[in-house]
Design goal:
Length: about 300
């Protein structure tokens, strides 16, 4: 397994982004699309907090409204009802205080890795020595110094995702929002990304909100785990993932606590997934109810 250094006494530490972490509160938010008979309620009366200086991970069945919530948090869309606030102020549109990293690569294929990372500062007319030093620092942190002059198609999928993280972090958002950023990577690249990403978070303690459908990814990364219901999406449970940091693959998945969290989360997710599977079938609904009764009686995962 690759060992990644997270040396906090790094001599270039002064170049790190000046992190000011934000906090987002989502209060009774609902979001519907369409009108009349064709109205579809995707998120319903959903409330949660993305706590300052924590890595909050949201996990839920496919199609439960996670990406919709991200668009609302980013300010690309507005809730039908309810409110979303950052540091107590309503979110009215996209802003530099929040930055979203999507599943799809947003790197410009005609720009080198370095130029991609410098895109944000340059777009703001801030191609300063400080920004260039920070780009160099971030290239080092994501292990791409030797690839600074390569173009995205010359990088592996994992390298592209690391370049993307550096490109987001140089803008120093108060809250980083990530929508399944490692989806589609092979298992080994994915696990490597988890260690890189956890390391970047552990150094900065910037507020992070990370959406995934991968339970191992969720547990490895999270300080807090939000479990979603089936559509219309709502937070069904919050689990504090009190595993020590820095996180390392080698010991996280051997730990008793990680396995307890996984069993509890899987039990809840299974119930939610079965609801979508049921689709009105009485036999399937009965199965879900029986499963829930059994889980209530015997505890999660037993
Ligand atoms: N603009 C829209 N108009 C109509 N329906 C939409 C719109 N955006 C999303 N939906 C519907 O809302 C539901 C939730 O979609 P969303 O992409 O938010 O789920 P998700 O949890 O992110 O799914 P996945 O994990 O598969 O990416 C889906 O049924 C989708 O078809």
């Amino acid at each position: 397994m690759t060992n990644i250094s997270h040396d906090l006494s790094d001599s270039s530490a002064s170049l790190r982004p000046q992190v000011s972490a934000g906090e987002i509160t989502v209060s009774n938010v609902s979001k519907s699309y369409g009108a009349g008979l064709f109205t579809k309620e995707v998120v319903k009366d959903c409330s949660f907090t993305i706590e300052r200086n924590k890595l909050t991970v949201m996990i839920g069945p496919s199609g439960c409204g996670k990406s919709t919530l991200i668009r609302l948090l980013a300010g690309f869309e507005k809730p039908t009802t309810g409110s979303i606030k950052i540091n107590g102020k309503p979110i009215t549109g996209p802003d530099r205080d929040r930055l979203v990293v999507f599943q799809e690569s947003a790197l410009f294929p005609w720009m080198t890795t370095y130029d991609n990372i410098m895109y944000g500062p340059r777009a703001r007319g801030e191609d300063t020595q400080q920004a260039r030093d920070l780009a160099k620092f971030l290239l080092e942190k994501v292990g791409l110094t030797a690839f600074r002059n390569k173009y995205p198609p010359q990088l592996s999928g994992g390298m592209q995702r690391r370049a993307e993280l550096a490109r987001a972090m140089i803008n120093d958002p108060e809250v980083m929002i990530l929508d399944e950023p490692f989806r589609g990577l092979d298992c080994m690249s994915k696990e490597l990304m988890w260690e890189y990403y956890a390391g970047l978070y552990e150094e900065s303690r910037r507020t992070n909100f990370f959406v995934t459908t991968d339970i191992d990814e969720a547990i490895f990364l999270a300080d807090r785990l939000l479990i979603m219901t089936n559509i219309p999406g709502q937070v069904r449970a919050t689990i504090e993932v009190d595993l020590p940091r820095p996180r390392r693959l080698a010991f996280v998945f051997d730990s008793k606590r990680a396995n307890e969290v996984k069993t509890e989360a899987l039990s809840l997710l299974h119930e939610e997934a079965m609801k979508s599977f049921a689709g009105g079938s009485k036999a399937a609904t009965d199965f879900v109810e029986a499963y829930s009764r059994r889980a209530d009686k015997t505890g999660p995962g037993s």
